[in-house]
Protein backbone atom coordinates (compact mmCIF):
# COMPACT_ATOMS: atom_id res chain seq x y z
CA UNK A 1 0.00 0.00 0.00
CA UNK A 2 1.22 3.51 -0.82
CA UNK A 3 2.12 5.75 2.15
CA UNK A 4 0.02 8.82 2.92
CA UNK A 5 1.00 12.30 1.74
CA UNK A 6 3.33 13.95 4.27
CA UNK A 7 2.75 17.74 4.46
CA UNK A 8 6.25 18.15 5.92
CA UNK A 9 7.97 17.07 2.68
CA UNK A 10 10.49 19.56 1.30
CA UNK A 11 8.39 20.65 -1.69
CA UNK A 12 5.36 21.33 0.55
CA UNK A 13 7.69 23.57 2.58
CA UNK A 14 8.78 25.36 -0.62
CA UNK A 15 5.12 25.83 -1.57
CA UNK A 16 4.38 27.35 1.84
CA UNK A 17 7.45 29.60 1.55
CA UNK A 18 9.06 28.00 4.59
CA UNK A 19 12.26 27.25 2.69
CA UNK A 20 13.66 29.13 -0.31
CA UNK A 21 13.76 28.00 -3.93
CA UNK A 22 14.88 29.60 -7.18
CA UNK A 23 11.37 30.03 -8.55
CA UNK A 24 10.78 30.47 -12.28
CA UNK A 25 6.99 30.24 -12.71
CA UNK A 26 3.85 30.17 -10.61
CA UNK A 27 0.13 30.11 -11.35
CA UNK A 28 -2.99 29.16 -9.37
CA UNK A 29 -2.31 25.42 -9.58
CA UNK A 30 1.43 24.92 -10.15
CA UNK A 31 4.93 26.11 -9.23
CA UNK A 32 8.22 25.66 -11.11
CA UNK A 33 11.70 26.09 -9.63
CA UNK A 34 15.31 25.03 -10.20
CA UNK A 35 16.45 21.62 -8.93
CA UNK A 36 19.06 22.22 -6.20
CA UNK A 37 21.08 19.13 -7.26
CA UNK A 38 20.80 19.47 -11.02
CA UNK A 39 21.54 16.57 -13.36
CA UNK A 40 22.51 19.17 -15.92
CA UNK A 41 22.43 22.92 -16.54
CA UNK A 42 18.84 24.20 -16.38
CA UNK A 43 17.31 21.23 -14.51
CA UNK A 44 13.86 22.52 -13.51
CA UNK A 45 11.00 20.97 -11.50
CA UNK A 46 7.26 21.51 -11.88
CA UNK A 47 4.93 20.67 -8.99
CA UNK A 48 1.19 20.95 -8.39
CA UNK A 49 0.00 23.10 -5.50
CA UNK A 50 -2.58 20.47 -4.56
CA UNK A 51 -1.02 17.84 -2.29
CA UNK A 52 -0.23 14.58 -4.10
CA UNK A 53 2.49 12.03 -3.46
CA UNK A 54 2.85 11.06 -7.09
CA UNK A 55 1.12 10.37 -10.37
CA UNK A 56 -1.41 7.93 -8.95
CA UNK A 57 -3.03 10.04 -6.22
CA UNK A 58 -3.16 13.37 -8.11
CA UNK A 59 -6.50 14.53 -9.52
CA UNK A 60 -6.91 14.68 -13.32
CA UNK A 61 -7.37 18.46 -13.00
CA UNK A 62 -4.10 18.84 -11.12
CA UNK A 63 -2.28 16.64 -13.62
CA UNK A 64 -3.66 18.71 -16.49
CA UNK A 65 -2.41 21.90 -14.85
CA UNK A 66 1.01 20.32 -14.29
CA UNK A 67 1.18 19.17 -17.92
CA UNK A 68 0.38 22.66 -19.19
CA UNK A 69 3.06 24.18 -16.96
CA UNK A 70 5.59 21.52 -17.97
CA UNK A 71 5.09 22.44 -21.62
CA UNK A 72 5.29 26.18 -20.91
CA UNK A 73 8.44 25.88 -18.78
CA UNK A 74 10.04 23.30 -21.11
CA UNK A 75 9.75 25.72 -24.02
CA UNK A 76 11.37 28.46 -21.93
CA UNK A 77 14.13 26.16 -20.65
CA UNK A 78 14.94 25.02 -24.19
CA UNK A 79 15.21 28.64 -25.31
CA UNK A 80 17.09 29.85 -22.22
CA UNK A 81 19.84 27.25 -22.58
CA UNK A 82 19.77 26.93 -26.38
CA UNK A 83 19.22 23.19 -25.86
CA UNK A 84 19.22 20.64 -28.67
CA UNK A 85 16.50 18.63 -26.93
CA UNK A 86 14.72 17.99 -23.64
CA UNK A 87 14.32 15.08 -21.24
CA UNK A 88 11.16 15.10 -19.10
CA UNK A 89 10.65 12.50 -16.37
CA UNK A 90 8.69 11.73 -13.22
CA UNK A 91 9.39 9.09 -10.53
CA UNK A 92 6.93 7.29 -8.23
CA UNK A 93 7.83 5.75 -4.86
CA UNK A 94 11.33 4.67 -3.79
CA UNK A 95 11.23 1.64 -6.08
CA UNK A 96 10.58 4.02 -8.96
CA UNK A 97 13.44 6.34 -7.98
CA UNK A 98 11.40 8.98 -6.12
CA UNK A 99 13.15 10.75 -3.23
CA UNK A 100 10.79 13.69 -2.52
CA UNK A 101 7.19 12.64 -1.97
CA UNK A 102 5.28 15.52 -3.51
CA UNK A 103 4.48 14.96 -7.20
CA UNK A 104 7.04 16.64 -9.46
CA UNK A 105 8.08 16.54 -13.08
CA UNK A 106 11.75 16.98 -14.03
CA UNK A 107 12.63 19.08 -17.10
CA UNK A 108 16.19 18.82 -18.39
CA UNK A 109 17.63 20.65 -21.36
CA UNK A 110 19.81 18.25 -23.36
CA UNK A 111 22.76 18.83 -25.62
CA UNK A 112 24.04 16.64 -28.42
CA UNK A 113 26.79 14.37 -27.10
CA UNK A 114 26.34 15.39 -23.40
CA UNK A 115 25.29 12.62 -20.98
CA UNK A 116 22.76 13.17 -18.19
CA UNK A 117 24.37 13.77 -14.78
CA UNK A 118 23.76 11.66 -11.68
CA UNK A 119 20.35 11.83 -9.97
CA UNK A 120 20.57 13.81 -6.68
CA UNK A 121 24.32 14.31 -7.12
CA UNK A 122 26.05 17.46 -5.84
CA UNK A 123 24.43 20.69 -4.67
CA UNK A 124 24.69 23.50 -7.23
CA UNK A 125 26.11 26.91 -6.39
CA UNK A 126 23.32 29.27 -5.31
CA UNK A 127 24.51 32.11 -7.54
CA UNK A 128 24.56 29.81 -10.56
CA UNK A 129 21.02 28.60 -9.82
CA UNK A 130 19.86 32.21 -9.39
CA UNK A 131 21.36 33.07 -12.78
CA UNK A 132 19.76 30.03 -14.42
CA UNK A 133 16.38 30.85 -12.89
CA UNK A 134 16.66 34.42 -14.20
CA UNK A 135 17.39 33.05 -17.68
CA UNK A 136 14.29 30.84 -17.60
CA UNK A 137 12.12 33.69 -16.28
CA UNK A 138 13.41 35.96 -19.07
CA UNK A 139 12.53 33.33 -21.68
CA UNK A 140 9.06 32.95 -20.14
CA UNK A 141 8.57 36.73 -20.18
CA UNK A 142 9.64 36.84 -23.84
CA UNK A 143 6.87 34.31 -24.52
P1 LIG B 1 12.90 12.59 -7.21
O1 LIG B 1 14.02 11.63 -6.94
O2 LIG B 1 11.94 12.57 -6.05
O3 LIG B 1 12.24 12.43 -8.51
O4 LIG B 1 13.57 14.00 -7.32
C1 LIG B 1 13.67 14.92 -6.30
C2 LIG B 1 14.49 16.05 -6.86
O5 LIG B 1 14.39 17.14 -5.96
C3 LIG B 1 15.98 15.70 -7.03
O6 LIG B 1 16.34 15.94 -8.37
C4 LIG B 1 16.65 16.62 -6.04
O7 LIG B 1 17.88 17.10 -6.55
C5 LIG B 1 15.65 17.72 -5.83
N1 LIG B 1 15.66 18.33 -4.52
C6 LIG B 1 15.78 17.70 -3.33
N2 LIG B 1 15.70 18.59 -2.31
C7 LIG B 1 15.51 19.80 -2.88
C8 LIG B 1 15.36 21.11 -2.33
O8 LIG B 1 15.38 21.35 -1.13
N3 LIG B 1 15.18 22.13 -3.22
C9 LIG B 1 15.16 21.92 -4.57
N4 LIG B 1 14.98 22.99 -5.35
N5 LIG B 1 15.30 20.68 -5.12
C10 LIG B 1 15.48 19.64 -4.28
TrEMBL record:
UniProt cross-references to SUPFAM superfamilies, sorted A to Z: HIT-like
Source species, domain of life: Bacteria
Pfam families in the record: HIT
Record-annotated HIT domain positions: 10-117
InterPro entries registered for this protein in UniProt: HINT, Histidine_triad_HIT, HIT-like, HIT-like_sf
Gene3D superfamilies: HIT-like
Residue positions of motif Histidine triad motif: 102-106
Protein name: HIT family protein
Organism classification: Bacteria, Pseudomonadati, Pseudomonadota, Alphaproteobacteria, Hyphomicrobiales
